[in-house]
Write a structure and sequence with these properties.
Layout: H1 3-9, H2 11-30, E1 44-50, H3 56-71, E2 77-85, E3 88-95, H4 104-107, E4 115-116, H5 119-124, E5 134-135, H6 146-159, H7 180-189, E6 194-197, E7 200-203
Antiparallel strand pairs: 1-3, 2-3, 4-5, 6-7
Length: 209
């Protein structure tokens, strides 16, 4: 008697065994820790662009739309969502799951990428953290900006905090300064304490003692 003959001669046993296999198979499937629609974290980059004083329509037409056209040329980019408001545009770039975005540290040298903050960052530098727990940092290296890197390194040595607050240098509703003349005018009109430009550190004439 071969193995298959056993099942042929005993049809009741074969039926019971088949039903049992189907039943326990369904039961096992239902208990599998697998979601039919799993939550997947896609590689995402958030881009923030400022245009002080511009209306939402101007920001959308002059900044958001041209940037979206350029971003769509990036390989692996699947979805772009953008929002334009008064003087600001925010865009979210969603990439395919197999896309590696580790190179975002280069883009972060120009404050164009938003990152999730660590608990240490939230605790030690809360003024730079957005309400949603993110920040748009400027990563400074000894190669990209040696003098500023030395300042931050010394501040880190003195305080234990490796970051400082950075903001755009411009008067309200004006573009960011582009020339030394722009910087000096904004320095004087803005009533700042000091201006660091090139190898010079200048105190505001109205603040000298």
């Amino acid at each position: 008697m071969n193995f298959s003959e056993l099942f042929i001669r005993r049809p009741v046993m074969t039926t019971v065994l088949t039903v049992s296999v189907i039943f326990f198979g369904i039961l096992g499937y239902l208990r599998l820790p697998v979601n039919d629609l799993p939550a997947v974290d896609y590689p995402v980059i958030q881009v923030q662009v400022s245009y002080p004083g511009a209306s939402p329509d101007t920001v959308a037409n002059a900044i958001a739309t041209p940037l979206e056209r350029q971003f769509m040329q990036i390989n692996g980019l699947e979805l772009i969502t953008s929002k334009s408001s008064q003087g600001n545009a925010s865009m979210t770039l969603q990439f395919a799951l197999d896309k590696n975005i580790d190179g975002a540290d280069y883009a972060a040298q120009f404050m164009t990428v938003t990152f999730d903050c660590t608990e240490r960052m939230k605790r030690e530098c809360p003024a730079a953290v957005h309400v949603d727990g993110t920040a748009r940092p400027q990563l400074v290296t000894s190669t990209s900006n040696p003098s500023f890197h030395r300042i931050i390194s010394e501040y880190h040595r003195l305080t234990g905090i490796p970051s400082v607050i950075n903001t755009s240098f411009n008067m309200h509703e004006e573009p960011i300064v582009c020339t030394p003349d722009d910087a000096i005018r904004a320095f004087l009109q803005g009533n700042l304490d000091y201006l660091a430009i090139g190898n010079f550190l200048v105190a505001h004439p109205g603040h000298r003692r």
